[in-house]
Design a protein that fits this description.
two-stranded antiparallel ribbon; cell membrane; transmembrane helix; 262 residues; mainly alpha; two-stranded antiparallel sheet; 10 helices; single chain; membrane
Amino acid sequence: MSIQEPNVQEAKRQRLFLLLCGIFLTNALIAEIIGGKIFSVEALLGIAPAQIGIGGQRFDFNMTAGVINWPIVFITSDIINEYFGRKGVKRISLLTACFIAYTFITILAATLLPPAQFWLELNKTDNQGNVFNINDAFTKIFNQGLGIMIGSIVAFLLGQLLDVYVFSWLRRRTGSRFIWLRATGSTMFSQLVDSFVVIGIAFYVFGNWDLKLVFSVGTINYLYKGVVAILLTPLLYVAHYFIDNYLGKEYAEELSHKAAHE
């Protein structure tokens, strides 16, 4: 082994951590910003409402737009945990929570700025020709920010902490085997909390939803996240393959072993 090899390995480890943190942070922020929109899966697919029976009630597939990005956050979190341990996940989770708060404070400040008259005039009708106040629409959408911000930060941190502890607990018992079990198991457990906490705080405590609607959307979001977590499991193996080749099999196993015994 040459004298420079450890430095090369350390440089690769740092670049990998920076890349994973960038992916994690970017997707978490995007998911929070677009999370105020609730969309219909049935309308997207052009099919009739599902009307699924759960607990004596019937629900359709209505979900927050944030579900587009959250699966990437789940996968990235598990990969960070695998190679950098609980401390690595905690660091990026706390940093992300701070950036989420900063983002929503900035957006809130933007909604308070007086609109330019020409901007209002240029956007005074919608696509159907109806009278439209773009500043009111902007404010209405983003002023959900306080509830979403508080709900998101609480749910995000709770979900991440649960995910990292369940992931680590399963890894200590399975060793390097059963990547699918610790990744999917930790996600299913943590998102049970996340799916209901964020919607409950954002739209029930700070919004105008009733508990029935919170349970409906929360349940559908959780079912979606569970299905996606299972479907995306092969990507974890693909990521492990490329990371192991990038770092070198021996060094990658050394990092994983060290992360598992933090």
